[in-house]
C-alpha cells in the first residue's frame, strides 16, 4: 500500500471514531434527560396517587354520613307511617262509637240533649287533639323537609365527588399510560445505548487494529527508507568511483599507450559494473520480498496465534496423558494389592505343608579335589536315570547310545537338560517322618547334595584346578578310559551302577565345560531360577523312582534355603 492511501485510511478511521464518540455522548445526554423526565413523572404519579387516596377517604366518609342520614330518614318515615295508621284507626273507632252512641240516644229520647252536649264537648276535645296532632305533624314535616334538603345537598356533593373521582381515575390511567410509554422509550434507549456501546467497542477494536497496522506500516516504511537510503548511498559511491575510474582511464589513455595495468584497470571496472548491476538486481529482489512479507504479515500473526494455541493444547494433552498414566499406575497397584490379598486368603484357606526334616550330618570330606561341573553333571544324569523305570536293558541301551554319540551332543544335551530342570522346577511331594528311604538311596542323595554344595564353594573360591588337570590329558586316552569304565560298571553292577557309568561318561565334556564356566555360569542366576520356578504343589506319594525324585527335590529345596 502507498503511504497516501494509508494516511487516508487512518484519517477515515479517526473520523469514524470521533463520530461514534459524539453519537455516544449524545445518547448519554438523551438517556439522562429521559431519566430526569421519568423521575418527574414518577413524582407526579406519586402525588396524584396521594390525592386519589385523599379523595377516596373523603368520599368514604361522605358515603358513611349519607348512609347514616338515610337510616334516620327511613326510621322517621316508618314512625310517621305507623302514626298515620294509628290515627286513621282511632278516627274510625271514634266514628263507630259516635254512631253507636247516636243510636242509643235516639232510643233513650230525653237524655239526648245532655248527650249531645257531651258529644259536642267530645268533638271539641277531638278537634283540639286533632289540632295538636296536626301541629305535631307540621313540625315533623318541617324537620323532614330540612332533612330532605340536607339529603339532596349531600347527594349532590356525592355526585360531585364521584365525578371528581372518575376524573382522577382517568388522570391516573393517563399517567400510567405515559409512564408505560416512558418505560418503553427508556428500554428502547437502553438497547440503543447498548448497541452503540457495542458499535463503539467494535470501533475501538478496529481503531486498535488500525493503529497496530499503522505502526507496522510505519516500521516497514522506515525499514524501506533505510534500505533505500543505503542503496542510494551505495549507488552514489559506486557512481563516484566509476566516474573516477573513467577519468583515470581517460587520462591514462590520453597519456600513454594502453599497457597491462590499464587493461587490468579496465577489467576491474567491468567487473565492478557487473557487481553493481548484480547488487541492484539483488536489492530490487529484496525490496520485492520485503513487500511480500509485509503483505503476508496478518497471515503470519494468525499463524503465530494458532501455534500458541497448539502449544497450549499440547501442554493440556501432556497433562492429561500424565494423569492417565498416574490413574493406570494406580489401577495396576490396586490390581497387585488385590492379587496379594487373594493370595493371602488362599494361603490362609490352604495352609502350606510342614517343612521337610533337616538333612543328615555331612559325610567326611574326600581327599581328592572335587570338580563342580563334574558334580553338577553327575547330579543331572542321576536324576535323569531316577525318573526312568529301573530297567536294566533300557539303561544299557541308553548308555551305549550316549557312548556312541558325539561328544558335542553329550555336552549340549547335558547343559540343556540342566537348564530346563532349573527353569521348569520340580513337583515336590509331602515328606513323612516315618517313611524313610533305604540307606544307599539316602547316601546317594546326601552325596549329590554335598557335591552341589562343594561345587558352590569351589565356585566361590574360584578353584578350577581339576579342570586344568583334565585338559592336560590326551583326548583318545580319556575316551578309551571312559568306555572301559562304563562297560565294567554296566556288567558288574547292573542298573544301580549304570548311573555311575553315565557320570564317568560325562568326563569328556569337562574340556568344553571349562569354557561354559568362563562364559558366566554364576551362582546368582542359578539361585534366581530356582526361586522363580520352585513349585509348592506336591504330588501323591508313589513307589519306585518317583520317591527318589521327591527326595532329591527336597534336598534341592534345602540347598536353596541355605543359599
From TrEMBL:
A single GO BP: positive regulation of neuron migration
Residues of the WH2 domain: 414-431
Stretches with biased composition (Pro residues): 351-366
Cell compartments where the protein resides: Cell projection, Axon; Cell projection, Filopodium; Cell projection, Growth cone; Cell projection, Lamellipodium
Coiled coil: 17-51, 137-185, 303-344
Keyword Cytoplasm: yes
Keywords of this entry: Cell projection, Coiled coil, Cytoplasm, Cytoskeleton, Developmental protein
PROSITE patterns xrefs: WH2
GO CC terms: axonal growth cone; cytoplasm; cytoskeleton; filopodium; lamellipodium; perikaryon
GO MF annotation: an example: actin binding
Keyword Coiled coil: yes
InterPro entries, alphabetized: Shootin-1, WH2_dom
Region feature Disordered, mapped onto this chain: 348-372, 385-407, 525-563
Annotated Polar residues bias: 385-404, 532-546, 554-563
Family: Belongs to the shootin family.
Protein's name according to its UniProt entry: Shootin-1
Organism of origin: Callorhinchus milii
Highest classification ranks of the organism: Eukaryota, Metazoa, Chordata, Craniata, Vertebrata
Amino acid at each position: 500500500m502507498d503511504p497516501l492511501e494509508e494516511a487516508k485510511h487512518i484519517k477515515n478511521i479517526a473520523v469514524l471514531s470521533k463520530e461514534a464518540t459524539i453519537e455516544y455522548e449524545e445518547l448519554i445526554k438523551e438517556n439522562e434527560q429521559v431519566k430526569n423526565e421519568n423521575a418527574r413523572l414518577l413524582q407526579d404519579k406519586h402525588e396524584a396517587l396521594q390525592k386519589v387516596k385523599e379523595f377516596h377517604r373523603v368520599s368514604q366518609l361522605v358515603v358513611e354520613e349519607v348512609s347514616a342520614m338515610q337510616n334516620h330518614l327511613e326510621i322517621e318515615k316508618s314512625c310517621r307511617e305507623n302514626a298515620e295508621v294509628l290515627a286513621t284507626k282511632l278516627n274510625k273507632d271514634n266514628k263507630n262509637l259516635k254512631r253507636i252512641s247516636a243510636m242509643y240516644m235516639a232510643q233513650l229520647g230525653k237524655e239526648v240533649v245532655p248527650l249531645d252536649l257531651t258529644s259536642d264537648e267530645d268533638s271539641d276535645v277531638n278537634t283540639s287533639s286533632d289540632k295538636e296532632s296536626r301541629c305535631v305533624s307540621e313540625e315533623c314535616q318541617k324537620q323532614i323537609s330540612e332533612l330532605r334538603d340536607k339529603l339532596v345537598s349531600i347527594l349532590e356533593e356525592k355526585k360531585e365527588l364521584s365525578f371528581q373521582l372518575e376524573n382522577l381515575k382517568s388522570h391516573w390511567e393517563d399517567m400510567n399510560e405515559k409512564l408505560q410509554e416512558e418505560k418503553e422509550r427508556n428500554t428502547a434507549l437502553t438497547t440503543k445505548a447498548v448497541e452503540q456501546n457495542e458499535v463503539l467497542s467494535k470501533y475501538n477494536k478496529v481503531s486498535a487494529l488500525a493503529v497496530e497496522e499503522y505502526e507496522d506500516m510505519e516500521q516497514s516504511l522506515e525499514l524501506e527508507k533505510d534500505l533505500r537510503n543505503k542503496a542510494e548511498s551505495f549507488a552514489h559511491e559506486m557512481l563516484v568511483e566509476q566516474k573516477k575510474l573513467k577519468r583515470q582511464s581517460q587520462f591514462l589513455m590520453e597519456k600513454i599507450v594502453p599497457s597491462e595495468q590499464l587493461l587490468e584497470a579496465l577489467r576491474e571496472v567491468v567487473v565492478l559494473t557487473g557487481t553493481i548491476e548484480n547488487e541492484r538486481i539483488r536489492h530490487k529482489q529484496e525490496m520485492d520480498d520485503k513487500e511480500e512479507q509485509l503483505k503476508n504479515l496478518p497471515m503470519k500473526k494468525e499463524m503465530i496465534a494458532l501455534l500458541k494455541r497448539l502449544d497450549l493444547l499440547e501442554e493440556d494433552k501432556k497433562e492429561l496423558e500424565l494423569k492417565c498414566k498416574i490413574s493406570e499406575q494406580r489401577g495396576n497397584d490396586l490390581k497387585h494389592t488385590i492379587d496379594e490379598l487373594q493370595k493371602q486368603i488362599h494361603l490362609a484357606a490352604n495352609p502350606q505343608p510342614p517343612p521337610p526334616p533337616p538333612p543328615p550330618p555331612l559325610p567326611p570330606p574326600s581327599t581328592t579335589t572335587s570338580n563342580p561341573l563334574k558334580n553338577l553333571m553327575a547330579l543331572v544324569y542321576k536324576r535323569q536315570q531316577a525318573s526312568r523305570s529301573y530297567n536294566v536293558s533300557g539303561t544299557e541301551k541308553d548308555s551305549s547310545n550316549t557312548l556312541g554319540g558325539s561328544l558335542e551332543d553329550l555336552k549340549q544335551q547335558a547343559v540343556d537338560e540342566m537348564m530346563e530342570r532349573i527353569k521348569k522346577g520340580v513337583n515336590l511331594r509331602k515328606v513323612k517322618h516315618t517313611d524313610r528311604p533305604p540307606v544307599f538311596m539316602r547316601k546317594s542323595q546326601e552325596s549329590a547334595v554335598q557335591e552341589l554344595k562343594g561345587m558352590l564353594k569351589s565356585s566361590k573360591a574360584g578353584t578350577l584346578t581339576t579342570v586344568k588337570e583334565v585338559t592336560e590329558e590326551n583326548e583318545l586316552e580319556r575316551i578309551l578310559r571312559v568306555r572301559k569304565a562304563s562297560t565294567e560298571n554296566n556288567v558288574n553292577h547292573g542298573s544301580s551302577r549304570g548311573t555311575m557309568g553315565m557320570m564317568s561318561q560325562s568326563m569328556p565334556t569337562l574340556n568344553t565345560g571349562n569354557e561354559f564356566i568362563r562364559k558366566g555360569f554364576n551362582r546368582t542366576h542359578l539361585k534366581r531360577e530356582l526361586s522363580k520356578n520352585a513349585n509348592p504343589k506336591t504330588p501323591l506319594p508313589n513307589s519306585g523312582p518317583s520317591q527318589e525324585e521327591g527326595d532329591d527335590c527336597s534336598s534341592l529345596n534345602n540347598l536353596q534355603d541355605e543359599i
